[in-house]
């Protein structure tokens, strides 16, 4: 009789442990960085560098507002590779990187033909790989601009932006 009671206790403990593990994995699955969005279409992104404010817009309606960090030389328009500046002008979202080392990222179509021409006149390459992306741990508590010309938001915000913004969305970057 004692053996059956011991077996029952062991089985109950095993069941509890397995239940905790199952609950853990279900909750982890709910924490995916890939969100869904079913609201109004984001028709444009407006970025104001000096104010460090980005708006996701549906026509003239603001859907979301974000603060961000910029390149390490934030004033002025990007002209050449490595200048630490963020481009200014009208571009569009041209790619997505779900495996970015900056959590998630959306590519900006820099350089355009004018950007290439300006850099060529300076005898330098224009650079590229400009993104809206998340923020690595070492910069999360910093108020400094630190990117190489990208627009950096908090990771949770990037998850929302990644879900809301589609490839082809216009992004206007103002001084």
Give a written overview of the molecule:
Helices cover 27% and strands 24% of the residues. With 175 residues, it is α+β, with helices and mostly antiparallel strands. Strands 3-2-1-8-4-5-6-7 form an eight-stranded mixed sheet. It is elongated.
Q: How far apart lie the N and C ends?
A: 81 Å
List the quaternary state of the chains.
single chain
Integer-rounded radius of gyration: 23 Å
Outline = elongated
Helix segment count?
3
Relative strand content: 15-25%
Query: What composes the largest sheet?
Result: 8 strands, mixed
Whole-number mean pLDDT: 88
Estimate percent helicity.
25-40%
Order of helices and strands: HEEEEEHEEHE
Number of strands: 8
User: Major sheet: order of its strands?
Assistant: 3-2-1-8-4-5-6-7
Low-confidence blocks of residues: 20-29
Structural class: alpha+beta
Describe the secondary structure blueprint for this structure.
Layout: H1 2-30, E1 44-48, E2 53-58, E3 61-67, E4 89-97, E5 105-108, H2 113-121, E6 130-133, E7 151-152, H3 155-164, E8 170-174
Parallel strand pairs: 1-8, 6-7
Antiparallel strand pairs: 1-2, 2-3, 4-5, 4-8, 5-6
List keywords for this structure.
alpha+beta; 24% strand; 27% helix; single chain; eight-stranded mixed β-sheet; 3 helices; 175 residues
The gist of it:
By secondary structure, this protein is of the alpha+beta class. It is built from three helices and eight strands.
């Amino acid at each position: 009789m004692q053996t059956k009671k011991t077996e029952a206790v062991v089985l109950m403990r095993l069941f509890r442990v397995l239940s905790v593990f199952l609950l853990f994995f279900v909750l982890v699955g709910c924490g995916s960085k890939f969100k869904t969005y079913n609201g109004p279409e984001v028709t444009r992104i407006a970025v104001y560098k000096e104010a460090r404010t980005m708006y996701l817009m549906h026509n003239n309606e603001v859907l979301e507002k974000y603060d961000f960090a910029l390149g390490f030389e934030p004033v002025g328009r990007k002209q050449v590779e490595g200048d630490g500046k963020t481009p200014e002008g009208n571009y569009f979202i041209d790619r997505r990187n779900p495996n970015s080392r900056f959590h998630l990222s959306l590519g900006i179509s820099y350089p355009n033909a004018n950007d290439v021409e300006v850099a060529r006149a300076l005898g330098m390459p224009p650079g590229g790989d400009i993104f809206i992306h998340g923020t690595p741990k070492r910069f999360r508590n910093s108020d400094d601009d630190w990117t190489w010309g990208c627009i950096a938001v908090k990771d949770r915000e990037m998850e929302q932006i990644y879900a809301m913004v589609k490839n082809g969305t216009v992004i206007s970057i103002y001084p």
